[in-house]
Amino acid sequence: MSDELPLLSVRELKALADASGRPFASVLVVKKLATKNASNGNPFLILDLGDRTGSFGCTLFSDGVVFDTVKDVGEGGVLRVEGRVDYYQGRLSPKLLKVVALSDAELAVPGLIDNLVEVAPEPATELWAEFQHFIDAISHDELRMTVRGIFEEVGEVFKWTPAAVSMHHAYRHGLLEHTIHMARACKALLPLYPEVDADLAMAGILIHDTGKTVEYEGAMSTKRSRKGILQGHVVLGYQLARKHGIKSRLDPERLERLEHIVLSHQGEPEWGAAVYAATPEAVFVSMIDNLDAKMGMVQRSLRQANGHDEFSERLPGLSTVLLTKPLTPKA
Fold first, then answer.
1. Of 70, 73, 155, 325, whose CB count within 10 A is highest?
2. Is residue 4 included in any domain, yes or no?
3. How far apart are CA 15 and CA 310, in angstroms?
4. Strands of 160-312, DSSP E
């Protein structure tokens, strides 16, 4: 890599104004990689590269000098990249001129991984301590035992698993953060809805996405596991709820309602729900889940805003761009 080029983060690249053609260098993770075939039969790669500050997509054709290196390193690989800034439909999409896969020894350099892996903004240790308090606050003994049993089985994985591959809270500790935010919202909103059983709603929130600890895998990039593809986190979470509800001798009616929360929390069948929410608690949990998923997209987009652009890139989960320019303070 050219010594003259300082390493730029994705946020710094996106903040460059009128930079088309400008040379740059970065160290980036291959977050997504797919091989396609052009109409002439020649293969090309569609990939997302990123670090803890953001990501961008680009396309590599088989006649390019970097094609084989990127294909060989695969998803989760770390690359030292040189290229020229370019844009496609208004989005950063650089032309890569040189890539080098980093060795294990190079990855061990202090601070490198921290710069590459996006994490939740709140400390994971504090989130986990708060999580324990929410479990302890469930007053129904068998329901609390059911929740405890589930987290004893899934173990440490829950603490670092992302909440999604790309849509919301898609970073390390994202699932823990998302669940805590939902629990906080639940506690604040419960007084408005006395028809909702507080213990059942909180238990449902705490376990609703536990199937994602099995659905997702990967340290540097996230992808769906074999079970995740064949069953999905809704079914996997239902299995956990049923197993530990029976083990804790939870009464059949509460177990059925807890299972229903897990099965319906995605809201719509096209979003992955097995059924529509059909109990007060399930409707309540589903709405809070949808709220925090969308606000999680907003929060992440605001964190990654570069200060140069008024709007974010289009957010698929919101079906629009987001105004990231701060509100002008009152004079």
1. 70
2. no
3. 11
4. 216-217, 223-224
Domain boundaries, position 108: 10-116
pTM of the model: 0.82
CATH code where residue 77 lies: 2.40.50.140
Claim to verify: residue 135 and residue 243 sit in the same structural domain: yes
| Domain CATH number, residue 239 | 1.10.3210
Structure tokens at 165: 């591959």
Asked if residue 235 and residue 189 are part of one domain, the reply reads yes
148 by DSSP, 3-state: which?
helix
Whether the Cβ atoms of residue 119 and residue 173 lie closer than 8 Å to each other: yes
Residues in the chain: 331
Query: Rounded to whole angstroms, how far apart are CA atoms 296 and 273?
Result: 20
Q: Is-contact 290 267, C-beta < 8 A?
A: yes
Total domain count, the chain: 2
Taking only the tens of pLDDT, the chain with its 331 residues reads: 445 788 899 989 988 877 888 999 999 999 888 999 988 888 999 999 999 888 899 999 888 778 989 998 888 889 999 999 998 887 888 999 999 998 878 887 877 777 888 888 899 999 999 999 999 999 999 999 999 999 999 989 999 888 877 677 878 889 999 999 999 999 999 999 999 999 999 999 999 999 999 998 876 677 788 998 999 999 999 999 999 999 999 999 999 999 999 999 999 998 889 999 999 999 999 999 999 999 999 999 998 887 777 898 888 889 999 999 888 888 7
Helices (H) and strands (E) in the chain, counts: 14, 9
| Element housing 95 (H / E) | strand 95-101
**218 plus 254 within the same structural domain:** yes
Domain boundary residue, one of 88, 116, 144: 116
Amino acid (one-letter) located at 147: V
Domain annotation covers residue 37: yes
The encoded tokens of residue 52 equal 């803890």
31 and 86 co-located in one domain: yes
Instruction: Using the structure block, give the residue that is written with the tokens 């319906």.
Output: 264
Residues 6 or more apart from 261 whose CB is under 8 A from it?
200, 201, 204, 208, 277, 279, 281, 282, 285
Residue with tokens 């890599």: 1
